[in-house]
């Protein structure tokens, strides 16, 4: 289960991969991860371990390799140096099938309506026409605040609405590990706050592990147990900030403001 405000104290580079005791493996782990695109070094010797049930945010300047880190963990990048594992299984060996990913771009099927687009995220062995599956999808439509739009196609949605469909699709799978790449960046402030709280509810209810990439320092501090600050190009871990605020959190909590200061200091802004 997620912690309830106790910030993690563990050094991100401390946990090892390939432990003989599988129960000791972190939910997400990279060790000595270097990723190159031609002459561009996107990530350089990155070490990071995220425990089961932990909520970790990753922030850093544009181009420091945040999306690349998630792409490696989902198995979308095959060529890299070092190791990356989900639930102790190396991503090169297929990783874990309990991973859900929400991309920065909604990537919806243009010809399918909202319900069908969300149903794409259901596990492969679930029949989308099954009443229980339809209920699950309808529940997700409600969760992301899209009641009344189940029959709409992507072309009829705003950018923020499309992004919420994408989030619901990522949740349809009921993943144990959820990787989110700036899922709220296109939302207006009020909807963003609502969706952040929805995500916290999902995380708490499911005891999921979450790694969230964001540019939004306030969002990172409000949501995460730990905030990993990537810096530079190539991306390396600058520092890891523990967020010491109790949950449920007040957005004005002094501890969140302190965490935000630490993060912005590390970012040099
Ligand atoms: N497919 C690709 N081919 C070539 N270079 C790439 C590719 N994908 C990413 N890069 C490069 O790798 C570096 C890291 O990119 P990445 O998208 O991971 O950064 P980011 O921190 O997520 O950026 P942003 O915050 O702007 O989304 C950048 O220099 C980028 O230009």
From TrEMBL:
Residue ranges of every copy of the ABC transporter domain listed in the record: 28-257
GO MF terms held by the record: ATP binding; ATP hydrolysis activity
Highest taxon of the lineage: Archaea
Protein's name according to its UniProt entry: SsuB
Signal peptide: none
Keywords tagged on the record: ATP-binding, Nucleotide-binding, Transport
Region (Disordered): 1-24
InterPro entries: AAA+_ATPase, ABC_transporter-like_ATP-bd, ABC_transporter-like_CS, ABC_transporter_ATP-bind, P-loop_NTPase
């Amino acid at each position: 289960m997620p912690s309830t405000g106790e910030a993690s104290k563990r050094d991100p580079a401390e946990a090892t991969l390939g432990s003989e005791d599988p129960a000791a493996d972190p939910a997400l782990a990279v060790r000595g991860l270097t990723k190159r695109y031609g002459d561009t070094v996107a990530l350089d010797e990155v070490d990071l371990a995220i425990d089961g049930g932990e909520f970790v945010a990753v922030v850093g300047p544009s181009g420091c390799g945040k999306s690349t880190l998630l792409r490696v963990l989902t198995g979308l990048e095959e060529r890299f140096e070092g190791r990356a594992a989900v639930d102790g299984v190396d991503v090169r060996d297929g990783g874990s099938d309990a991973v859900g990913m929400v991309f920065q771009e909604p990537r919806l099927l243009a010809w399918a309506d909202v319900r069908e687009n969300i149903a794409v995220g259901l596990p492969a062995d679930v029949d989308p026409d099954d009443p229980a599956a339809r209920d699950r999808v309808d529940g997700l439509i409600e969760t992301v605040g899209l009641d009344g739009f189940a029959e709409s196609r992507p072309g009829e949605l705003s950018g923020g609405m499309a992004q919420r469909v994408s989030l619901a699709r990522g949740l349809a799978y009921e993943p144990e590990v959820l990787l989110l790449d700036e899922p709220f960046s296109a939302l207006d402030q009020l909807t963003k706050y609502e969706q952040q709280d929805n995500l916290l509810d999902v995380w708490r209810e499911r005891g999921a592990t979450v790694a969230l990439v964001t540019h939004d320092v306030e969002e990172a501090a409000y949501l995460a147990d730990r905030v990993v600050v990537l810096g530079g190009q190539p991306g390396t871990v600058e520092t890891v900030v523990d967020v010491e605020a109790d949950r449920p959190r007040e957005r004005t909590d002094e501890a969140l403001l302190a965490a935000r200061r630490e993060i912005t200091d590390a970012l040099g802004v």
